[in-house]
Amino acid sequence: MLAENKKLSAMESDSVGKVFVRYLIPSLIGMFMMSINVVVDGIFVGHRYGEVALAGVNVAVPVFSIYFAVSLWIGMGGAVLYSRHLGAKQVKEARSVFTHSLALIFGLTLLLAGTAYMFREQLALFLGANDETMPYVMEFMTVLLGFGFIVTVQNTFSIFVRNDGNPNLAMISLLVTAACNIVINYVLLFVLDFGVSGSAWALIGAAAIGTCVLLTHFLRKDSMLRFVKFRFSWELIRNTFTIGLPSFVAELGISVFTAGYNMAMVRWAGTVGVSAFSMLNYVHSVMLMLFIGMGAGIQPLLSYYRGAKLRSRERETIRLAVKTAIGIGLGVYLVGLLAADGIVSMFGSFSAEVRQMAATGIRLFFLAYLFMGVNFVMMTYFQSTEQVKMATWITVAREMLLMVAILLTLPHLIGTTGIWLAIPISELVVVVTVYAYIRRRTRSVPEARAVS
Fold this sequence. Notes:
membrane, xenobiotic transmembrane transporter activity, transmembrane, MdtK-like, mainly alpha, single chain
């Protein structure tokens, strides 16, 4: 108990900047490495089987996004409640939340996977598969549908380990997962010639190994995570789903984004456009994970401080996070502007038409990162403080409402340029609405000054 109390007191006594960095850096590195898993699949498939196979895997990637979305829904919703209980020194209730969340994610994932497996061909067509890409889509998707629950359990468990004051182990787990994914991909694709399905098996096998690493958290003396007797609770399910909904919608939006862009590219640029977008999409998945990692890094702090009623530390944390998001976004935009051709080259040798379209797309699309990080940070803040409606608006608007509306209209005016600019424009509009919302609340609600 002494070790547990010491860990909690450090959250309250160490400087906000020190605690912020302690959680942020491992979270960014861990999420970056998780994104590497999908990018590695694309790089190996592109080099081994060519651009059509790469496009096929890209069409199937939303299945991974759906799994990840469900794990964030339950994981982030449960984690907010868990850390809030810890902040209020309610350890028994925190452990009950943890047990309930792990049981819920396991059961729900199996139910979804079984349903999707029965309609996998229809799902592939909906996601944008055509006659050329369908065989590769089915290979990759079938494996993910059968064993993707391993990915969801690992991610949910990782979120709770981070919220239990061990962000370094959560990071190490994802580092190990990424390293194993690279090795297994090479063996299955280049040595054993498993085909595109080998890349999916590498993803699943690596996640299983990463989960085993997380289990060592239970050996720590200061670990508060414990499995307790499971007690089914509709109230806990409702609270978990309500608080975690913005995270679920944010990740589900990635599937909408990928499917929407694939469909738009098929219409306006054919398979060449889908191949070009697939390269950008892999890079985009890395950036999304970095921003999700930023949110995951500050969520335990915001939830704990809210439970402990330490509002001044909560305000300082969100201000640091916004400044960090702006800095990262600017740096990434400059990289895309100056190194677009090099980024495209990472995925193999393609036709000049595909290379040129992909490089142009990167230079235009990377404008979105100037605003995207701030949107993720503010979504996490609203989520952690139970302003769920505003958090949900950010996620729904970014990659659903505004993006779809722009994809349906702007390409008619400026062609494929309108497709590349759909996300940058939607991110900018959302930032403006968030700023307006905060300014309005600042005049009427003192608490809103935390982010003004």
